Amino acid sequence: MEKRTILAFILSFLVFIIWSQFFIPKINTPVNEAQKTEEKATLNINNGSADLPAATPEPVLTNTDSEILSNSVTEKIITIETPVYKATFTNKGPAITGFQLKKYRETIDPASPYFELFKENKEIKRNLSFHFNNPQIKDGSDLFFVPDKEMINLEQGQGMETLSFKYSTPEGIILEQIFTFSSDSYDIGARIKVSNNSERIATGNIKSVITNIPSKKKVGYYSFTGTAVFYNNDLKQFKPGDLEDEDDTDLTGSIDWFSYEDEYFITAIAPEEKRDARYIGTIQKSGVITATHFSESVEILPSTEIIKSYDLFLGPKEIKTLKKFGNSLESAIDFGFFDVIAKPLHHVLVYFNKYLKNFGFSIILVTIIIKIIFWPLTHKSQKSMKEMQKLQPLMAKIREKYKDNKEMMNKELMGLYRTYKVNPMSGCLPMLIQIPVFIALYSVLSSAIELRHEPFAFWIKDLSTPDRLFSLPFGIPFMEPPYGIPVLTLLMGLSMFIQQKMQPMVGDPAQAKIMMFMPIMFTVMFINFPSGLVLYWLTQNILSIGQQYYINKKPV
Fold first, then answer.
1. Are residues 353 and 315 in the same domain?
2. Which of 43, 186, 226, 488 has the fewest beta carbons under 10 Å from its own?
3. 491: phi > 0 → left, psi -120 to 50 → alpha, else beta; which?
4. Of 105, 117, 222, 102, which is closest to residue 530 (Cα–Cα)?
């Protein structure tokens, strides 16, 4: 197989990888209604939980006057505000019904609203909630708890504050949910306390639920939207289409955390007790996704209580922030098959930005370093192409002479390579080695939250979105809204064309014509890619042009 054929194969492989991002939609709308009833989605309290070991309840010291509650009969909204978020609770459930991240905006416009984690939907009443599953207790959505505060406002460095909700059942079971907020963290502590002041054993478990709906925005190939669970020390991710098969998303075992995620943000619940738990992911026809976790079943004797503790994280998918949270939550960031290469590249990119204060320049610097590392390999590849070009006239004569005898043609060509000590495959291996690095960097630049709403220079105001100069009132073929002139993408295509013109033309004319269409094909594909990725590719092409110029000036 000739070198030019191998090159065409490699580029075709890259085209397939990138083209899949361009054409394959990442937000799937389920075809059929996911028929999942509460009985199916909940552990059987009396029978099905027999295989789950019961936890040991704590004794209740006394029945104090504070435990004799007068339950609320109306819905109340409690607002929690800290320097990093603004949360909205309802006492009906209780539940979190809104969560705005104050360090992030919905759009690049500084005046746009804070980013809302939970998208408004008429079918979603509660976005994050806990409930004690017991046959004698109604679903939490019908219970009005009594809050101990009407609002909380935490200033920077102010420490922590708690919010408590209580409810008393007619049978004498006291339900209490206590949330702890920090002034400078996305972490929220949750303690679910069940006190049995009745004369009967109360059997049940704690159900924790996250509900959300994906936005209709098209996301990158390596971006993830859906539910995830860290199950038996392994990350399981379920996109909307995966959730249609209930059997695949019903897991029982050790669960460190479960979550709902979109491209850049995550809502996660990490139970303190991880063993003997159950997770179920479901989706409705409307697209609403629900992730549910069930703790192990427990029997609460009269005059005793149990307390289940959870850590909540509602914030950005930022590696350092997720590591600080613990519970292996940083595993939620998965850059794909070459994750082991992508994460060091991501770390270097963020490190450079600390000093350059511009992710665009950081991308350029990382690209230069990668080019320097691979310089010996690419230099060998380009030198081999030039040596092959010198043999082109002799190769053409052999092809013409033995055009009706392929076996003899290949034999003579191999003899020619041996005579001139040229290996047609020598230039291909360096390119193959670089493919994992390219894919890893591609995954980082197309999904890292650090690039969200980050400007570069001139008209490029957001490296996570396609570059558009001006706003055009009409559509352009292959271009997704907003419509404009993709200057950076056109420059990338031009640089690729120049690079090809400078490379030695090795192979038959048909292959050469195919290669000449590559700049056009890549320009069309990149027209909707994040400008940060286009900037990387443009920088790579410019450096390759300089390297090729150096090779062409040297005699073979």
1. no
2. 43
3. alpha
4. 222
Number of domains forming the structure of the chain: 2
Give the closest residue to 351 by CA, choosing from 452, 457, 450, 465: 450
Phi and psi, residue 159, nearest 5°: 100, -135
Whether 250 and 120 share a structural domain: yes
* Neighbour-count burial of 500, counting CB atoms closer than 10 A to its CB (0-12 exposed, 13-18 middle, 19+ buried): middle
DSSP state of 69: -
Boundary of a domain, candidates 298, 329, 360? 329
Cβ–Cβ < 8 Å for 375, 547? yes
Residue numbers of the domain that contains 105 = 29-45+73-214+221-329
Quote the CA–CA distance of 525 and 22 in Å, as a whole number.
6
Do 290 and 392 fall into the same domain? Answer: no
Report pLDDT for 323: 94
384 and 251, same structural domain? Answer: no
Q: Is there a domain that residue 164 lies in?
A: yes
Same domain, 121 and 198: yes
Question: Is pLDDT at 131 greater than 80 in this prediction?
Answer: yes
Q: Which two tokens stand for residue 402?
A: 């033995």
Q: Are residues 306 and 162 in the same domain?
A: yes
3-state secondary structure of 509: helix
Instruction: Report yes or no on 62 lying in a domain.
Output: no
**H/E/C letters for each residue in 166-232?**
EEECCCCEEEEEEEEEECCCCEEEEEEEEEECCCCCEEEEEEEEEEECCCCCCCCCCCCCEEEEEEC
| Span 526-550, pLDDT tens digits | 998 889 999 999 999 999 898 888 8
Going by the DSSP 8-state scheme, the letter that residue 549 receives in this structure is H
Same domain, 391 and 260: no
Residue 226 confidence (pLDDT): 93
Q: What tokens were used for 181? A: 């907020």
In this predicted model, which residue has the larger pLDDT, 453 or 22? 453
**Predicted TM-score of the model (pTM):** 0.81
Most confidently modeled range among 139-143, 185-189, 243-247: 185-189
* Shared domain check, 392 and 318: no
